Amino acid sequence: MTRSATLDLQGVAIGFDRMAASYDATFTDSVIGRAQRNVVWKALKRAFRAGDRVLELNCGTGEDALFLAGRGISVVACDASKGMIEVAECRKAEHAPDAAIDFQLLRNEELGQLGGEARFDGALSNFSGLNCVVFPRGVAEELGRLVRPEGVALICVSTRVCLWEMAWYGARANFAKAFRRISGKTVAHLDGVDVAVWYPTIRELRRAFRPWFRVRSVRAVGLFVPPSYVEGVARRHRKLLRAAEMLDRVFAAWPVLRGVGDHVLLEMERTRA
Predict the structure, then answer these.
(1) Domain limits at 72?
(2) pLDDT tens string 242-254
């Protein structure tokens, strides 16, 4: 790993450490955050059942791990941020002390430190964790080692083309933000820390995860439901948000539309090859 890549990894951890205490208030418990996460949870319900063992990447404050554990699924939940892991551990102790969750301080790029072959029934990377990974193919290869054949990997990343973002910032003549994703790379400012962010296309993700996984389905997360920075408007207009959720249920899996939301969710199956 190059020195610049190492610095990027350190920036990701520091940035999310600083955000950890406020992350649930600003996203997890927001009406937009809940609307977008519900789409992923619906997919989790279909993919996993009680007794399964799931590996979660970039687990944040543990919201998805707690959801899975509540359904009788054991979880190894990893994150690069010590602050996020500490918040997640506190939430587990308060709300589900007996939950089968093992929180580990581990970057996505360090999955090789998890030993064993085909140890998990599936994997989850939610809400843009892989957008902070320089070489997603390396992560895909490690998941191919860790997930059993026919196991499911759910990968949710920020898209390269977000119509909401283009419209929202374009209407305010802030064209730098409106089109910041188009080049495939930008710099995010996480509480005073600059972090490089990549925006892969669906085709690039398919290529990165081949031959270990085949894509079973693709859908937008946040097509009509707006990105989190529109939270104030969404809170004032709950009926419009509910209508947006309904439209997402109808149109989010349509070709073309599935690639222009705030995020895209890929459901992939571990191949036998």
Answers:
(1) 3-270
(2) 999 999 999 999 9
CA torsion sign for 23, 28, 30, 35 is positive
How far is the C-alpha of 73 from the C-alpha of 206, rounded, in Å? 27
pLDDT of residue 2: 41
CATH number of the domain bearing residue 16 = 3.40.50.150
In the block, tokens 């081949």 appear at 210
Position 32, amino acid: I
- Residues contacting 30, CB < 8 A, separation 6+: 228, 231, 234
* 118 to 27, 64, 76, 156: CA distances (angstroms): 33, 22, 14, 22
- Amino acid identity of residue 164, one-letter, is W
Question: Cα–Cα distance between 126 and 81 in angstroms, integer?
Answer: 15
CB 235 within 8 A of CB 22: no
Residues 127-137 have a mean pLDDT of: 94
Q: Tell me: cis bond preceding 149? Omega within 30 of 0 counts.
A: no
Number of domains in the chain: 1
For the chain, the C-alpha Rg in angstroms (whole number) is: 18
Give the DSSP letter of residue 227: P
Per DSSP, 223 falls in state S
Q: List Cα–Cα distances, 177 to 143, 169, 173, 262, in angstroms.
A: 33, 6, 9, 14
pLDDT tens digits, one per residue of 217-272: 999 999 999 999 999 999 999 999 999 999 999 999 999 999 999 999 999 999 98
Quote the tokens at residue 170: 């374009």
**Mean pLDDT of the residues in the chain:** 94
Cα dihedral sign, 252-256-261-267: positive
Q: Which amino acid is at 219?
A: R
% pLDDT > 90, the chain: 87
